[in-house]
Amino acid sequence: MWYAIEKGSVYAGFKKEAGKEEFLKAIQAHSPQEALEKIEMEAGEAVYIPGGKVHAICAGSLLFEVQQNSNTTYRIYDWGRGNRPLHTKEALEAIDWYDRHPPKKAPQRIESDLHHQFQILADSPFFIVDKIDVFDHWHIAAIPKTFQIYFFLKGEGSLTVDGCREEYRPGMTFLVPASAQRIELEGKCEALRIRLP
């Protein structure tokens, strides 16, 4: 999943009229973008990229990426860099040529009051990404079966886990263990929370 921190664009999946033959021709012509669906993203928007969907980040885009734990990347094209190995054969076997699902995800509103708003951005079999907006203070429920990762987008304040207090500011990331009993967020902020299903 990609979350746009700033306005940008990505390629995700194929254009409606493009299939395997059109994609291979576009690669041979050094213009794979001719077969790929370009998605313009505003800050705060998210796209979900399941395995098998061809994808690339456009230059100048600032994204936060969450993915299933994997060291497998099949690079089909290297955009003129020429110094990294390509895995065209493996990629062609792994691509889901029939996936035409739009990757942009609309947030699901879960909870809101005067002090915070809580949305689910992605709910996959491998991870869940929530966006939280805190007005001044929020006690976050422990989830004993999973760790929680917090990435702060905006604001400054403190994150306290079982009495251990740490200051946060934009761009900082914290890992909260599944064993945590009490989690407190203080300060006005926007953050992403990543956890297991």
Mean pLDDT: 92
- Domain count: the total is 2
Low-confidence stretches: none
Specify the CATH architecture of the largest domain: Sandwich
How many DSSP H or I helices?
2
Radius of gyration: 19 Å
Largest sheet: 6 strands, antiparallel
CATH topology descriptor of the largest domain: Jelly Rolls
Question: What is the CATH class name of the largest domain?
Answer: Mainly Beta
Head-to-tail CA distance between termini: 15 Å
Strand share of the residues? 35-45%
The CATH superfamily of the largest domain turns out to be Jelly Rolls
**How would you classify the helix and strand content by structural class?**
mainly beta
The total strand number stands at: 17
- Helix content estimate: under 10%
**How do the strands line up in the largest sheet?**
8-9-10-17-12-15
Give your account of this protein's structure.
The protein is mainly beta. It is about 10% helix and about 40% strand. The chain has 2 helices and 17 strands. It has helices at about 20-30, 90-95; strands at about 1-5, 10-15, 35-40, 45, 55, 65, 105, 110, 115-125, 130-135, 135-140, 150-155, 155-160, 165-170, 175, 185, 190-195. The strands form 4 sheets. A 6-stranded antiparallel sheet has the order 8-9-10-17-12-15, with no helix packed on it.
